[in-house]
Amino acid sequence: MSMTSLAPSSDIALNLALSLISASVAPVLLLDGDLSIVAASQSFVEAFDRGPGPVVGVKLADLGAGEWNTPPLWALLKATTYGQASIRAHEMDLASPSGLRHLVLNAQRLVYGDGQGVRLLLSIQDVTELRARAQQKDDLIRDKAILIQEMRHRIANSLQIIASILLQGVRKLSSDESRDYLRDAHQRIMSVAAVQRQLSDAELGDVDLRDYLTDLCRGVGDSMIRDHDRLTLSVTVDDSIVSSGKSVSLGLIVTELLINAIKHAFPEDRAGRITIDYRTQGEGWTLTVCDDGVGLPPDPSVVKPGLGAGIIRALAHQLGAVVVITDAEPGVRVSVVCAPHPLHTS
């Protein structure tokens, strides 16, 4: 049990100790074995004394309006005087006339060697304002989080409205090329809306990538796949936790690749499977979207890159990654790779 011994000394040593307590800038009390006040710092008197007359000789339980007379505190102090316990950063609420105050207490048992008995050194820290500021900060963070989630939700709704307007415009065009362009633009906007919708339901800060990508792919698949027995999706993600900013970019890449595979890899209601895989390797990571569809054309140079391909490469560049396209035999494998050493793109 923690205990400090004071060697036998003259009254000079005791007077010096009492003077140090009296001059302390922090609220400090010296109590005897009956928990009566032997000495009090001026800072304690100014901060806590509400009664008339001096505090020396008054029991702590009788101080002020009796707000210090709480059974938990009393039991801890008595146990400390007996050497059966110690008080380290004990928190308590003090119902003072000025309002509820939050205190942190520390108590040290002292034993004089000159027969004066046990003394208890009690220091008090008022953390009411600190806790109030911390609560205000938490409230501001919570309010900001609510506003950001609401903003994401509104953005997703607005994007869906814009996409619907574009789709209505497709019916009014006579040019096949213009209709295809608007359909692509519609699909791009819907992919961004899907990502925003998913984020609006998620917590702010870091994102659990497994749940995020699984829900996102399920949403895209439900909206685009007519027969889930014919075309299936599987998502495998490790335990990665990423920032919300990175999750947005990864979500857009996955959505683009998934839409592209659903639209082009399985013509004429061909059956197949699309797999999405994400895993970290040391400081790097790899995102792979693979299908077992019709595969790459014999001469890939004749295929004109679409809007989606440009979006994917731009997002990959933002993430410090490269896009690698290979023949899956059958199908196509697209890997977005972020590695410590540069890779060559296909």
Layout of strands and helices, then pairs:
Layout: E1 4-6, H1 11-23, E2 28-32, E3 37-40, H2 42-48, H3 71-81, E4 87-96, E5 99-112, E6 118-126, H4 128-170, H5 176-200, E7 207-208, H6 209-224, E8 231-237, E9 241-242, H7 244-264, E10 272-281, E11 284-291, H8 307-318, E12 322-327, E13 332-338
Parallel strand pairs: 1-5, 8-10
Antiparallel strand pairs: 2-3, 2-6, 4-5, 5-6, 7-9, 10-11, 11-13, 12-13
Helix pairs in contact: 4-5, 5-6, 5-7, 6-7, 7-8
Write structural notes for this entry.
Helix content is 43%, strand content 25%. α5 packs antiparallel against α6 (209-224). The strands form three sheets. Strands 1, 2, 3, 4, 5 and 6 form a six-stranded mixed beta sheet that branches. It has helices at 11-23, 42-48, 71-81, 128-170, 176-200, 209-224, 244-264, 307-318, and strands at residues 4-6, 28-32, 37-40, 87-96, 99-112, 118-126, 207-208, 231-237, 241-242, 272-281, 284-291, 322-327, 332-338. The protein is an alpha+beta fold. It is elongated, with a radius of gyration of 35 Å.
Strand content: 25-35%
The Cα radius of gyration reads 35 Å
Number of alpha- plus pi-helical segments: 8
Question: Given the C-alpha coordinates, what overall shape results?
Answer: elongated
In sequence order, what are the helices and strands, one letter per element? EHEEHHEEEHHEHEEHEEHEE
Please give the share of residues in helix: 40-55%
Roughly what is the average pLDDT, rounded to an integer? 80
Largest sheet: 6 strands, mixed
- List the uncertain runs: 1-10
Q: What is the tally of beta strands?
A: 13
Kindly summarize this structure in a few lines.
Helix content is 43%, strand content 25%. The chain is built from 8 helices and 13 strands. The relative contact order is 0.07.
